[in-house]
Amino acid sequence: MALIVQKFGGTSVGDVKRIHYVADKISKTYAEGHQLVIVVSAMSGETDRLFSLAQQFSQTPDPREIDVLLSTGEQVSIALLSLALIERGCPAKSYTGAQVHIRTDDVHNKARILSIDGQKIRHDLSQGKVIVVAGFQGMDSFGNITTLGRGGSDTTAVALAAALKADECQIYTDVEGVYTADPRIVPEAKRMTRITFEEMLELSSLGAKVMQIRAVEIAGKYNVPIRVLSTFQEGSGTLIAAEEEDLSKSSVSGMAINRDEAKLVIQNIPEAISGISQILGCISNAHVEVDMILRSFHEDGKTDLAFTVHRRDFQKTLSLLNQVVTEIGAKKIFSNDKVAKLSLVGMGIRSEPRVTGKMLEILAKEQINILLMSTSEIKVSVIIDEKDLERGARAVHQAFELGSEVPTELMQGI
Amino acid sequence: MALIVQKFGGTSVGDVKRIHYVADKISKTYAEGHQLVIVVSAMSGETDRLFSLAQQFSQTPDPREIDVLLSTGEQVSIALLSLALIERGCPAKSYTGAQVHIRTDDVHNKARILSIDGQKIRHDLSQGKVIVVAGFQGMDSFGNITTLGRGGSDTTAVALAAALKADECQIYTDVEGVYTADPRIVPEAKRMTRITFEEMLELSSLGAKVMQIRAVEIAGKYNVPIRVLSTFQEGSGTLIAAEEEDLSKSSVSGMAINRDEAKLVIQNIPEAISGISQILGCISNAHVEVDMILRSFHEDGKTDLAFTVHRRDFQKTLSLLNQVVTEIGAKKIFSNDKVAKLSLVGMGIRSEPRVTGKMLEILAKEQINILLMSTSEIKVSVIIDEKDLERGARAVHQAFELGSEVPTELMQGI
User: Fold this and answer.
1) How far apart are CA A413 and CA B400, in angstroms?
2) Which of A142, A174, A206 is the last residue of a domain?
3) Which residues in B lie closer than 8 A to residue A87 (C-beta atoms)?
4) CATH code of residue A73
5) Which domain, by its residues, includes A113?
6) B68 and A94: CB-CB below 8 Å?
7) Which tops the pLDDT comparison, A207 or B258?
8) pTM score, two decimals?
């Protein structure tokens, strides 16, 4: 008998028929003798419906009241799923975030979970109940309703699993697990059976949209094994867990792709230190996040600065730079908002510096120009022209044999 | 500056346009310098929509989960109204029933309010906030969400007014106040400017659907003046308050009509005491409520028993009686489910026994047969054939001059 937290997203409880389906699935697992805590999102479309209602009263709606409004979406889901479970003889009991004391900070619309009091749930579980908790929501220290922001139900599930010391946190979604690459771009992409917290964190940060980053962080911190599964397909999904001592493991686990990038280059900055700090200062004051950044030197002592931002911030950043560039006396700005980021992630990268070299070789062979590059312990990212993205992604995916069941000797060798 | 609790029902916040209208109205009162606590119901139709969703999962849905589900209706209303108020520069803050500690018993779907902690609201009011509270809902001592049953928002408003010692509790509705009779039946019916708690209680019990009985009870107990007003028409409505020393006051204030009645008569019960107790016992065991009841004696020592029940319980009661009648050896049952109740209510009735006589006279003149009759301190009710109801109601209404602005000398005289 295991204690399992299961999270079902908005599409999994998207309509009456699907809620019936999910209730059948949960009842079956309950009949096998497991203790179950279920976390659900709002029925798909419901959050958007509520938000557009709010916009009929205000274009900049008050964040506190938005949380009061949006949190009803999950409350409807927990009640309906509980009714469906009770009808199947499964003794369900629903709770809002506030009712199980999911305490958050007071940043409305994107609150962070601070603590969870698992006492009530543990007591109910000991009585044989199935607990159904509203995802995405909590309560600040003044008793105000807060929401965690979109995708926050993952975080609720993982935080509950950590608080209850659950054996596994299962994230049910509309894909069959975590893939070596986005299957829409790389058709050969295959489901990974296992991946480490660190790898998943990098993949999430790099733009893979399977799991919310905060959820993976909490899972890693409290060592909660996560399994990403399909609601509507059978299968064992992808296990996200701590690193195993497995020497036969491939050095590269997966690939992430991100099209939301825009690149900016400022040429010939005369006074490098003050110039760069002025540039980055004005961008950060405007709440624009800089992703990759590269500084290059000229023989005459002048400096170039290249960096990327989210594509939605491109125009804003460009007009900020136009001012600063004149102030600091730099030569000019090159900009390109049609770039993309291609990344390889794997625990083996830190012990295998050749991964980076091999990636560059493959892209060179494909005559793909690398505009920027950055590496970390377990990640290599390159910025390339967006038009080269799919070709590059497929070539790299194939060369690293991410689509094959067993890593080749070559892969093990490097 | 007064502290006013205002309640807006489902039709008052029925759509986006009406919420804008109500927000304008509240902002205006706020601008006059009053302290305001607003209680709102779910947008009209929303409770039905949620309930029919529930029925797609269970024909006998779990009462606890129904409360979790239905309470979202008011939560959406408080958020939207608060957004509308904030947009108008009116510093609104919304609270669910649980958030302001509206403690109820644990009878889901028809819970009774036990206590309210006004501290949070008083603090917010002192900061100049307008408080918007979800009606119809509360929380039991275990933190479970409860609902008060249909119409419960009236009770929330009056209970809040009592807890906060508000100067007035204003119930905004789709009629302009409390009428001397149902205007759909008696076109001459007019709005009363003032009525006592006791009179309103009788009118509500007798079938006038303006206010929930429990709300009037609380108002009377804590002496909270209630004003029933129209949301969409200007006017001073009807004040429901304690009795005034006013000798010029009419002895009869209003008339109530109730069509949901059915009459049953059991003839020739041989052993009166044991027979009647067996009849009433079996009816009460079946949770059927007996309304009016009359026992009559024959010269031979046998007894007849006549009583009325709610029309929906008629068939059930009839089949129960068929059994009992044989057991106790009574002669037979007469039944009639096409009867109605006509009642006069007024504080003056207790000091004016002639009201009853006059009512009987008027009905006799109209050749309307009285099937059953009952009187209390401030009420006279008769059961008549439903076909005679409208004619009887108009005749009585006119004879007691309920439609006239000032009571006539005759009325003052009796």
Assistant:
1) 105
2) A174
3) 57-58
4) 3.40.1160.10
5) 3-174
6) yes
7) B258
8) 0.79
